[in-house]
Amino acid sequence: MNRRTMLRSAGLGLAGAVAGCSGSSNGDGSGGETSGDGWAGGTNVAMTDSLKFEPETLTVNVGDTVTWKTVDSVAHSVTAYEEKLPDGAAYFASGGFDSESAARGAYPEGSVGADETYSHTFETAGEFPYFCIPHESGMRGTIVVE
Questions:
Q1: Residue 45 reports pLDDT greater than 70
Q2: Strand 65-70 and strand 44-47: pairing?
Q3: Half-sphere exposure (CA, 13 Å, Cβ side) for 142?
């Protein structure tokens, strides 16, 4: 099993495990909001046909795993801005790339299609800005790790 298949399988399992926990809305920006389809919330981020990450900013704890899911039909990527990551933080990108330039150069490899997921565990505190390669001009988000 290659890394992409493993991540996709792990993400689907996690999505199913937390699906029942994502219905609350606390409005404080800590990830309790839900998208229109009820999927985003907790440590989940929805990627939509309106070219948005929902929520745009998500606050999680060190050690939490965030799962992104394409909830509509347009494929997206999850690609960290490498130069903006906290010192010592692991790089992340859908497709398992080890650098931003590798992710950009290989796209559309690493795209997350309809109903597919990508997951990353955050082990370092700080702000993690990221974007969708084909929709970068407007589709950006931030994971805040406390």
A1: yes
A2: parallel
A3: 13
Residues 6+ apart with CB under 8 A from 28: none
47 φ, ψ (degrees, to nearest 5): -115, 120
Q: How far apart are CA 43 and CA 35, in angstroms?
A: 13
Is residue 99 predicted with pLDDT exceeding 70?
yes
The answer to whether residues 88 and 128 touch, using CB atoms and an 8 Å cutoff, is no
Q: What is the pLDDT of residues 50-77, one digit of tens each?
A: 999 999 999 999 999 999 999 999 999 9
Question: Residue 42's pLDDT is what?
Answer: 86
Q: d(Cα 74, Cα 141) in Å, to the nearest integer?
A: 17
Cis preceding linkage at 134, omega within 30 = no
Give pTM, 2 decimals.
0.75
Angle (CA) 63-40-104 rounded to 5° is 70
E strand or H helix at 66 = strand 65-70
**Residue found by looking up tokens 């920006």 in the block:** 29
Whether 7 and 67 have beta carbons less than 8 Å apart is answered as no
